Amino acid sequence: MTKVTAQLSVSLDGCYAGPRHDGTGDWMHSAESHGFFRVTRWVTAAMSWRERQGFAGGEHDVNSEIVAESFGAAGAYVMGRRMADGGEVPWGDEPPFRAPVFVVTHRPRPTLLRQGGTSFTYVTDGVAAAVAQAREAAGGKDVAVAGGGSLVRQVLRAGLLDEVELHVVPVVLGDGLRLFDPDLGLDDFEAIEMSPIRVVPTPEVTHIRYAVRGRAPLVLDDRGRGTGTPE
Amino acid sequence: MTKVTAQLSVSLDGCYAGPRHDGTGDWMHSAESHGFFRVTRWVTAAMSWRERQGFAGGEHDVNSEIVAESFGAAGAYVMGRRMADGGEVPWGDEPPFRAPVFVVTHRPRPTLLRQGGTSFTYVTDGVAAAVAQAREAAGGKDVAVAGGGSLVRQVLRAGLLDEVELHVVPVVLGDGLRLFDPDLGLDDFEAIEMSPIRVVPTPEVTHIRYAVRGRAPLVLDDRGRGTGTPE
């Protein structure tokens, strides 16, 4: 059955990039990019990523297999417009997705067809519509929310996310774009409960996959301790 | 050799408690307490904790062993004043520390001697002084920074923390007191690097122990990717 999944590389303080680039100067010289590249360094080094992109070298290792598994599981993708635009040049003629990508945006754009099976369809009627279109296109495989972090948060907030895998990198950035932030719209006595379903330790990064259980109240139990676990 | 260690239960979004209680009304009814009890629920349930506190029941399990290991490794503790004051009544006549506790504070107070080996010494000349006194008292065992999160952050910021274990609970609180926040004083192109040295998965909580490597610059390597690993 098709699951809606996401995976994101984050620092120990939950940032998927440095503080947001304000547009002045080159993004490559920004704190945002430096944080982003630090937390995605393990991916860059992974051989599967390199094979897809046509690079030589790298090693077959756990991290490479995790990247490969991530691409292999997805039948379609949902992506934010900022990420799609930012990746257009770097991904070139044969982007690594090899499946339909549904871009969530307010600004229409004609569908782009790339080599190797990747296409970009610009969906202007919201996150849920993009997820629904991706489900149809996924052919029974999963819908992967490719990013950015802001879109993953929107899908989670909408209650549409089934699983999320965090690639927790052992670095503290201090500040940056956070996956989980007040935009989630949780009130003070409300939380989102998850269950860890797989943990893969490596020296560079700890991979933790969670099933999203859903929103639940934060209540004290009869010992005066917190429960909050949804039934 | 004595290590300075810390361990903290945190939500997926890095919070060790809900948003700070402003002092009006009972702390037990605050969002801060509800978040705190949710992320420490695994501890409450662990039998070692219960044995120390004199409760009956609970199970011997991985989480109980981890709590017991944590207490067993420490020869002395460093603690923040707010935590020490807040725990005074709940911990009663025989607090679970069974070792000297050095409380970091601006306000002097005479040393308190409790039953079972716990003592509270109020250190007014700063975090480094408290850590130094704890080292002397630790008898070759570790110095454990018991908390709160604010003190752990200060010890980390001062470069005095050797290891930190995060008990990552699979819940998103949305907002709260964060262990890693801008008080760390990291600039935009600077990070704190760590290495994961042990990962213990359980259904309720993922335990990840890190060795603190230290501050390092965030730089792009010659592939345009982030390195930042200190030599």
Write the layout of secondary structure elements.
2 copies of one chain form a homodimer.
Chain A (H helix, E strand, L loop, with lengths): L3 E8 L3 E3 L13 H9 L1 H5 L1 H7 L8 H12 E7 H11 L8 E5 L7 E2 L5 E5 L3 H11 L4 E6 L1 H9 L5 E7 L1 E2 L4 E2 L11 E12 L4 E12 L14
Parallel strand pairs in A: 1-7, 1-8, 3-4, 3-7, 4-6
Antiparallel strand pairs in A: 2-10, 5-6, 8-12, 11-12
Tell me how many strands of chain A there are.
12
Report the β-strand fraction of chain A as a percent range: 25-35%
The radius of gyration over CA of chain A amounts to 18 Å
End-to-end CA span of chain A:
23 Å
Shape of chain A: globular
Oligomer: homodimer
Explain briefly what this protein structure is.
2 copies of one chain form a homodimer. With 231 residues, the first copy, chain A, is α/β, with parallel strands linked by helices.
Description:
The structure is a homodimer of 231-residue chains. Chain A has 231 residues and is an alpha/beta fold. Chain A has a single domain, classed as Dihydrofolate Reductase, subunit A. The first copy, chain A, is built from seven helices and twelve strands. The first copy, chain A, has helices at residues 31-39, 41-45, 47-53, 62-73, 81-91, 127-137, 149-157, and strands at 4-11, 15-17, 74-80, 100-104, 112-113, 119-123, 142-147, 163-169, 171-172, 177-178, 190-201, 206-217. Chain A has a nine-stranded mixed beta sheet. In chain A, a hairpin with a 5-residue loop joins strand 5 (112-113) and strand 6. The longest helix of chain A has 12 residues, at 62-73. Chain A is globular, with a radius of gyration of 18 Å. Residues 227-231 of chain A have low confidence and may be disordered. At the A-B interface, helix 1, strand 9, strand 11 and strand 12 of A face helix 1, strand 9, strand 11 and strand 12 of B.
